[in-house]
Design brief:
430 residues; mainly alpha; Na+/H+ antiporter like fold; two-stranded antiparallel ribbon; 2 strands; disordered C terminus
Length: 430
């Protein structure tokens, strides 16, 4: 879906660039009694458009989803133990530092230095998608390593957005946002498991952060941390109770051949459903519910609104521009060097072990796949440059060209290296 949306955006932007921008730049108005709900935002950032709504509202759901993944991984996943987490954490640190450093070296002393964070983040959806194409030959541990690394990578990108891409700050609105966030955490402590409660106050957190000047996507990640991870019913108690209920359900089936449910069977199923909602943690339930909407709606819509690059005035100059080179070389060489080097150092100094059943060739392939920066890189690029100026628009286009070119090269190269590396999946000794 991401690939299709990207192709459609590119075709649309090159067939009719005017209509492409006219649609996404359409202003959105939401007023109550003459009061504009986005007036404070427009004062500093210009009109609230459809493009703004996608990047600053719809994408909050994606970052909320990322926040849920981060919290789950830290509590019960690959990042829950220091020994297991050191390799993806250090790999992610290297994969963030070197791309930023390469971009900084190329663009140092120019106004375009503001885009240094663009090549930092890995697109977890694309990277895992390419890895899955190789099939079952890829060790599960490598898939887990890439997922954990990309999650840490995203967390660092979120921190960069919060710290370096906040132009103004309203403490009153920020305090309001943290107030709503506090209510969500308080609900967590009271064992509130109903999603509408967190949705209601989560919208409040998003709105206050949007008005405060702190990028609203940060609200998505922080809101995710407030979602409970502890079920209300222990699994052993659930099993014991459900086992009795199923016996009641099947007893009636033995007495009747009618396909319609009897009243007591309906009661049994409703009781089991009630138990399921309490034995599955709200975090897991919400994350599962968002899986398809994020993958098949939110990310493709984001790609459709952001990947449109008009190549009508494209020339060799675009490829040799500092921003394009910084993004391309940062994503390709920065990720390979950073992830591989820091992973090797972690194993060399016995801070971590290679993923079980894997070898260094497979780890190299993963470091190449980390050069796929599509979604997060596009997102940061939109924050980095002032598109109200001609120069800013040109730099954003160059950044998108660099992102698309690097992501395509990294995807193809990573796939080929991984396919060759999994031909012999035996671990390589130190």
């Amino acid at each position: 879906m991401l690939i299709i949306a990207t192709i459609v955006a590119m075709l649309w932007a090159n067939i009719d660039f005017h209509s492409y921008h006219a649609v996404w730049d359409s202003p959105l108005k939401l007023e109550i009694g003459g009061y504009s709900l986005f007036g404070e935002f427009e004062k500093y950032h210009g009109p609230f458009t459809l493009h703004t709504f996608i990047n600053d509202a719809i994408m909050v759901v994606f970052f909320f989803f990322v926040g849920l993944e981060i919290k789950r991984e830290v509590l019960v996943g690959e990042l829950s133990s220091i020994k297991n987490s050191m390799l993806p954490i250090l790999g992610a640190v290297g994969g963030v530092l070197f791309p930023a450093l390469i971009y900084y070296i190329i663009n140092n002393g120019t106004p375009d230095i503001r885009g240094w964070a663009i090549p930092m983040a890995t697109d977890i959806a694309f990277a895992l998608g390419v890895l899955m194409l190789v099939g079952s030959r890829v060790p599960t541990s490598i898939k887990v390593f890439l997922a954990a690394l990309a999650i840490v990578d995203d967390l660092m990108a979120v921190l960069v957005i919060a710290i370096f891409y906040t132009d103004h700050l309203s403490l009153i609105w920020l305090m309001g946002g943290f107030g709503f966030l506090g209510i969500m955490f308080f609900g967590n402590r009271l064992h509130v498991i109903h999603s509408p409660f967190y949705l209601l106050f989560g919208v409040g957190v998003w709105y206050c952060f949007l008005m405060s000047g702190v990028h609203a996507t940060i609200a998505g990640v922080l809101g995710a941390f407030a979602i409970p991870t502890t079920p209300l019913i222990k699994k052993q108690a659930f099993w014991s109770k459900t086992n009795q209920l199923w016996k009641m359900f099947t007893t009636h089936m033995d007495r009747s051949h009618d396909d319609r449910l009897a009243d007591d069977q309906s009661d049994v199923l409703q009781t089991i459903e009630y138990g399921i909602n309490r034995v599955v943690s709200p975090l897991k339930r919400i994350e599962h519910g968002l899986d398809y909407p994020v993958a098949f709606v939110i990310l493709p819509v984001f790609a459709l609104a952001n990947a449109g690059v008009n190549l009508g005035g494209f020339s060799l100059h675009n490829f040799t521009a500092g921003v394009t080179l910084g993004v391309m070389l940062g994503l390709l060489f920065g990720k390979i060097i950073g992830v591989s080097l820091f992973s090797w150092l972690a194993v060399k100094f016995k801070l971590a072990n290679l993923p079980a059943g894997s070898n260094w060739s497979q780890l190299l392939a993963v470091s190449i796949l980390c050069g796929i920066g599509f979604t997060m890189a596009m997102f940061v690029a939109g924050l980095a440059f002032d598109t109200t100026t001609t120069h800013g628009q040109e730099m954003l286009m160059n950044a998108k060209i660099g992102i698309l070119a690097a992501s395509f090269i990294a995807g193809v190269a990573g796939y080929l290296v991984l396919k060759k590396a999994t031909g012999d999946s035996s671990p390589v000794s130190e």
